[in-house]
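Hello, quick one for you while I still have it in my head. I'm working through a protein record and want to make sense of it properly. Would you mind checking whether the tokens look sensible for this chain? I owe you a coffee for this, so here goes:
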Amino acid sequence: MIDPKFPELTNVQVEKLKNYGEIEFYKEPTVVLDFGDQHYDFFVVLTGGIRIIDPDKKDENIAIHTRHQFSGSSSILSHRTVGVCGETLANTQLIRTSPENLKSAIAKFSDISDVLLNAFLLREDALKNNVQGIKLIGSEHSNETYAIRDFMDKNDIWYNFIDSDKEDGLVQLLETFNLKESDLPVLINSQNEISVRPSIDEIGTCTGVRLQLDDDVYDVLVVGAGPAGLAASVYAASEGLKVLTIDSNSPGGQAGKSSKIENYLGFPTGISGRDLANNGYIQAQKFGCTISVPHRVEGIARKEGYYEVNSNNTSILKAKTVIAATGAAYRRLPLESIEKFEGSGVYYSATSMHANMCKNSEIGIVGGGNSAGQAALFLASHAHKVYVIIRNEDIGAKMSDYLVQRIFACDNIEVLTGSNVVKVDGDTYLEKVEIKQNETLVLNNINYLFTFVGAKPCTEWLDNIIDTDAKGFVHTGLTICDNALNGESVFKHRKPYTFETSLPGLFAVGDVRSGSVKRVASAVGEGSIVVSDIHKFLALETEAKII
């Protein structure tokens, strides 16, 4: 039986791919893929083979690609660093294809696209479980270490975490690399290159998640890579527009933090928010969209014929249209010292990393929406006890019924209605949480508190230049106040498009938009529909220039 991770291309498919690459011959074993390479090439084996090797176990083969099999994983489409080595066997003949030419072939031939992308995605999952990747050494209770882990986890960067609080041979391990505990956290790659207390920007660059962006004027700049932003990226790129998508943290937005989404059409057994985001991330790049993180947008200005977007870590980005898909973030609990424990006991998402952290512990979930319910059920399979803390007397007021039923059926989940967290306490990390239930104070030995309350729109970068509602969510289309349109001459001749803001050519979709439903499905719908607005806008702009 053929392993779906290592399929063979047909003779016809191989002949098609020959037109997109160069044929090379290697008499002696030669490294054609090296650990840490960015922008690496794709290879199809004609004769001989390619050994795929874990750089930490060079005597063992992960796989050997033989006749009509091919190298690569989904990272080849995103220019991420390669996490394995590839060495030819003796007397090997290959087709070498650049990532750009590979994308052209994928766009033109659906049969090749299906075979390659299915294999790429399966390989990515298998490699994550079997290849150590980068080593991260640091304390589980360190805010700095947590920020790095959170970024790498959400961006699907392979790494092996070594908890300095639990590592018996820590001193000896550090001495091997001429390091001290004060240097932590540190990253060490398979070539033993060391980065001491790296910034998130540095990690993004060295892993290929963050790209060197060019000075072109894009047709569409999507700010935010949640479900709405990714959907807009996929549809705009698939229709031939030049698209750049950026995000301040990772693809997926709040949905990417959901352990399991079960009410999204087409996934009867559910799908994790992370998998949904990763699939959308690859799908957008398949159609030629450029995606780069992390980039935090700090401002936007309108020039003649295009927008200029100012990011914190790159040159000015230029685009004919901009889509605001920055979503909303959970608010910080109004408690003294809460900031001290963020990353060391207080968290705003619940992923597999968090589940491993809170094994056999007592944890608290604050919030009564679907995100809180999904987190409670996911973490309950790891934690000793889960307290769901809500202000309302009815947990079903804001949470889907299927989640409510499962929560009540779970033996180690207790729902505390009419409750608020009033105090968090601890030395260097969270040790106790004080909860007020009605008029009674309850002191729990909670070491992990997950909060999903009070969505706040991420619109700081828009700096009051467009019309919003009282809470800061962006008005679009017919909801825009008439006064906000008076200064725009174009709106004297036409009404704003459905998802257009009070500035022509600046659109808003998803949770950042006033009146949005705050569901994954609706965000994806808005992200796909807005592209028709963009086509209309660009067509009018072109027509105006011709006239």
